[in-house]
């Protein structure tokens, strides 16, 4: 009987211990739930980028071109390949000599393409060759705008029978691009200031600036040099070109930037 009583007491002690452990677990769970309640926010390792604002700016400056590049073609058709080549070469040489007599430097004249092809009679079952055609392309660079019209007219007289393309360039491109960059950054600053004010913050210093989309297709690098003198010359040559029927118009110089500001 004594042994049976001891066993009962042992089981009772185990039950009390288990109840205590369960109560402790419930207490810990309640504390954990209270610590993770939605009303409590713990901020650790705050992201610095939250105190920065990145905006983009894009501007353009319109400039008057003062230089041109012209692509001519000399096309010849003759019954034989040899006759075709000889006639084409004569017209080509006459054109080059005419260009040089007009003051075009040899370094600005480039034979940029050749082509000699048979001419077929497509109505014949045997694809009979009826002659030959040769095309020589001549690219002439560094042409002042005021001389472009005269050079095109006299080149046609000398032997050119196709004007394939005329491109315009500006010797003051770099100055214009720098002006566009300044305007683009000012635009970005204005946008950032408005956004900061609207969000109740104060715009701070610039922390980073990046340039995008630089495409100087109209940039001229050649014989001409000298800042403001080039601007005056560009206006004068453009006016002279208009008298000859060459309307160069204006070139768009664009700049695009991304600017990051600190917020206070």
From TrEMBL:
<feature type="signal peptide">
    <location>
        <begin position="1"/>
        <end position="35"/>
    </location>
</feature>
<keyword id="KW-0732">Signal</keyword>
<dbReference type="GO" id="GO:0006974">
    <property type="term" value="P:DNA damage response"/>
</dbReference>
<protein>
    <recommendedName>
        <fullName>DUF541 domain-containing protein</fullName>
    </recommendedName>
</protein>
<dbReference type="InterPro" id="IPR007497">
    <property type="entry name" value="SIMPL/DUF541"/>
</dbReference>
<dbReference type="InterPro" id="IPR052022">
    <property type="entry name" value="26kDa_periplasmic_antigen"/>
</dbReference>
<dbReference type="Pfam" id="PF04402">
    <property type="entry name" value="SIMPL"/>
</dbReference>
């Amino acid at each position: 009987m004594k042994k049976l009583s001891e066993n009962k007491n042992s089981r009772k002690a185990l039950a009390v211990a288990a109840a205590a452990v369960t109560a402790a677990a419930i207490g810990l769970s309640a504390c954990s739930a209270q610590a993770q309640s939605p009303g409590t926010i713990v901020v650790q390792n705050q992201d610095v980028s939250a105190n920065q604002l990145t905006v983009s700016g894009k501007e353009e400056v319109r400039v008057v071109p003062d230089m041109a590049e012209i692509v001519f073609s000399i096309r010849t058709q003759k019954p034989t390949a040899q006759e075709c080549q000889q006639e084409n070469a004569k017209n080509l040489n006459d054109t080059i000599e005419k260009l040089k007599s007009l003051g075009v430097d040899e370094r600005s004249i480039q034979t940029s393409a050749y082509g000699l092809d048979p001419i077929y009679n497509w109505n014949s079952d045997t694809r009979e060759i009826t002659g030959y055609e040769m095309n020589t392309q001549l690219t002439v660079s560094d042409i002042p705008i005021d001389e472009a019209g005269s050079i095109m007219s006299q080149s046609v007289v000398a032997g050119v029978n196709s004007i394939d393309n005329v491109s315009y360039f500006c010797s003051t491109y770099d100055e214009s691009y720098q002006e566009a960059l300044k305007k683009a950054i000012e635009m970005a600053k204005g946008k950032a200031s408005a956004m900061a004010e609207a969000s109740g913050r104060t715009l701070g210093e610039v922390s980073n600036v990046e340039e995008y989309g630089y495409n100087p297709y109209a940039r001229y690098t050649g014989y001409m040099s000298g800042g403001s003198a080039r601007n005056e010359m560009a206006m004068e040559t453009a006016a002279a070109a208009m008298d000859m029927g060459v309307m160069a118009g204006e070139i768009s110089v664009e700049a695009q930037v991304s600017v990051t500001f600190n917020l206070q």
